[in-house]
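Example 164, ligand fe (iii) ion.
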Amino acid sequence: MSLESMEDLLVHELKDLYSAEKQILKALPKMAKKASHPDLKQAFQKHIDQTENQVQRIETIFESLNGKPRGVKCVGMEGLIEEGREMMEESMPDYLLDAALIGAAQRVEHYEIAAYGTARSFAEKLGLDEAVRLLQETLDEESETDELLTSIAQRVNSQAKAEA
Ligand code: FE
Ligand code: FE
C-alpha cells in the first residue's frame, strides 16, 4: 500500500480502527460473561451496544469517501485482546478477575482514544466536518467508558479489601 496524502493516511487509520472495533466487539461478550460485579457486567454490555454504533459510524464515513473499511488488520488490538485472554485464563478469585478485566478494558479504551483522536485531527485538517463530528461522538463514548471503568474499579477494589 502506498500512502500519498493525508486523506490516504486517514483512510488507513479508519481501516485500522474498523478492524480494532470488530475485534473488540467479538471479545466484549466474553469479558461480560467473565465479569462478576454487576456494574462491570452492565458496563461491558453497554459498551457492546456503543461499539456496534461505532462500527456503523466508520461505515458511514467510508460511504461518504466512496470506499470500504477493509484490508487492514489492527495488530495492536489483537495484542491487547490476546493479553486480556491470557489473563482471563489464570486462576484467581472473582474480585481479582474483575480488577484484571478492568485493566485489560482500560488498555483497549486508551488505545481507541489515541487512535480516534488522531483520526479526528486528520479529518479536521481535511475539512471533513461530518467525519469530525462522527469521530468526536465515538471519542466521547470511549472517554466516558474509560471514566466509568475507573469508577467501577474503585468499587471492585474496595470490595476486594473487605474480602481480603
Ligand atoms: Fe470502540
Ligand atoms: Fe471502546
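Summary: The first helix runs from residue 6 to 34.
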